[in-house]
Amino acid sequence: MTTIRQLTMDDYRAVLDMQTGIEDDYVLNIFPKLIENPAQSLFGLMTEEGLAAVAGVFRLPNGNGILGRLRSDIRYQSKGNATALLKHIIAYCEQDPRMNWLGAITRKSNLPAQRVLDKLDMHSDSHFISLVMEDPGKVKVPAAAPWLPIEGTKAKRDAIEQAAKEVALAFYPYEAYFPIPYASAILEDAYIENLSVFRNTDASRIMVIQEDFKGRDIAQIQYFWPDVFEQDGLWAAVFHYLQQSGKQLVPQLDVLPETAFNIPAVFRDSFTKDDDPWLIYGRYIR
């Protein structure tokens, strides 16, 4: 008999006993933090053999939600468990009048995940490559004055909204690996207060740094134009920010594949090579 229910800390032992085939699986390791997070709901599909699959929804502002944390026990795969579990979570979200949009991201190479998302009537709306700068010390950019910080919640919001309007931004990188449809309503005061926003000298470009944690401390760089590697002052500001931080921050930047495939030589060795784009799937439920 198969049952699906929301997980609690009482299920931690069963989660740890799952064989996901992923070495040092961070989803299993951070399970307590996921359960404690009020924005995160985790569900499990139980069979007579045990916990066969885990997945959840992470709720974000303006009625957005990201499906994820999907893990299947390799002993019970190919039985439609992932599809059944995600269908249950979507139905759960549809009953919540606060929810408007559900999304999911997966690698272009992950054809099984794409087949599951197609069955869920979710559509691929955009794509990106997430560049991770593992060794910032290797970058030797020309000397330039760092971009200037923008102070104050209103000024930061105005700058982001203006930039988003200028580029007709469809998806906003609200967190690392959590892009959601852009709308000014997602820019809540508490969120903006934790952003560091910078502008160039003629105020024609802005850049945002958000500290995040995805298994390690990340400095997520938000930049909305394709010329990110032509902005020496931007990178001067990034490196100054890293030097001032008391954490070992790893810079991360979402770009279009064509930008990632044409990284200038001065940057190339500092970024982890990645030629497998992330696909953004989505579906409006209201």
TrEMBL record:
Q: Keywords on this record? A: Transferase
GO molecular-function term, one example from the UniProt record:
acyltransferase activity, transferring groups other than amino-acyl groups
Task: State the Pfam families in the record.
Answer: Acetyltransf_1
Domain N-acetyltransferase per the UniProt entry, residue ranges: 2-138
The record's annotation in SUPFAM superfamilies points to: Acyl-CoA N-acyltransferases (Nat)
* Family matches, as InterPro entries: Acyl_CoA_acyltransferase, GNAT_dom
Under which name does UniProt file this protein? Acetyltransferase (GNAT) family protein
Protein's organism = Terribacillus halophilus
